[in-house]
Specification:
With 155 residues, this protein is of the alpha+beta class. It folds into 2 domains: 117 residues, HIT-like (HIT family, subunit A), CATH 3.30.428; 32 residues. Strands 1-2-3-5-4 form a 5-stranded antiparallel beta sheet, with helices on one face. The radius of gyration is 18 Å and the shape is globular. The model has no long low-confidence stretch (mean pLDDT 91). Bound molecules: zinc ion. The site of zinc ion has 5 residues, from helix 1. Zinc ion binds next to helix 1.
C-alpha cells in the first residue's frame, strides 16, 4: 500500500468525490476547498511534481500520453467550472515545498470563481519588485540559462 495519499485516493483506498476520470487522469473535489467546486486534477502516474515530469528523450510514449491527457483534463475541468458556476476559474499548481505543495503527487487545482463569489486569493502582485533594471536582468539571465540547460539536456 502506497503512503502517498493521492495514490491511495486513486486506488479507491480513501474515498473522494470524483468529478471525472479516464485511463490516465482523475479529477475530484478538494476536501479543503478555496471556493465551491474547487477540484484537483491528478495523473494516475505518481509524478512528484511538475519539475519531475519526464521530458525529451527520457519521456516514454506513455509519459507523453499522460502529459497530453493531463492538460486536456485541466482544460475540460476549467471549461466545466465556467459552465457550471457561470463565472471564471483559477488554475493553481504548486511545485515543491517552497511552492506551497503539500501532497508530493503532481496535481493542478481548478478553482471555480462564481459571479459575486469570494474574491480570488491575493497573489501579492508586485510584492517582489526588482530594486533595479540590473537586478531584473540578472534574474532573467539566470532563468534563461536554466531553460537553455534543460533544453540542451533534452528536457
Ligand atoms: Zn502518488
Amino acid at each position: 500500500m502506497s503512503d502517498c495519499i493521492f495514490c491511495r485516493i486513486l486506488a479507491g483506498e480513501i474515498p473522494s468525490t470524483r468529478l471525472y476520470e479516464d485511463d490516465r487522469v482523475v479529477a475530484f473535489l478538494d476536501v479543503n476547498p478555496m471556493a465551491p467546486g474547487h477540484a484537483l486534477v491528478v495523473p494516475r502516474r505518481h509524478w512528484t511534481d511538475l519539475a519531475s515530469v519526464p521530458a525529451g528523450a527520457a519521456a516514454s510514449a506513455e509519459d507523453l500520453e499522460t502529459r497530453a491527457a493531463l492538460f486536456e483534463a485541466v482544460r475540460l475541468l476549467s471549461a466545466a467550472a465556467v459552465r457550471a458556476f457561470g463565472g471564471g476559474a483559477n488554475l493553481l499548481q504548486c511545485t515543491g515545498v517552497e511552492g506551497g505543495q503539500t501532497v508530493p503527487h503532481l496535481h493542478f487545482h481548478v478553482i471555480p470563481r462564481a459571479p459575486g463569489g469570494p474574491v480570488p486569493p491575493a497573489f501579492e502582485s508586485g510584492a517582489a519588485r526588482y530594486a533595479s533594471d540590473a537586478e531584473r536582468d540578472a534574474v532573467a539571465a539566470r532563468f534563461r540559462a536554466a531553460i537553455e540547460a534543460l533544453r540542451a539536456e533534452g528536457r
